[in-house]
Amino acid sequence: MAELRAHALAVVLCSADAIALDALVAPGHRARVLRTAPDETLFVADPGVAAEVVREVADRIAALDDDALVLDVSDGWAAWSLAGDDAGRALSYLSQLEPPDTGGFVQGDVARVAAKVLDEPAGLTILVPAYWRDHLRERAIVDAGVTT
Question: Which domains occur in the chain, in start order?
Answer without folding.
Answer: 3-7+76-144 (3.30.1360.120), 10-75 (3.30.70)
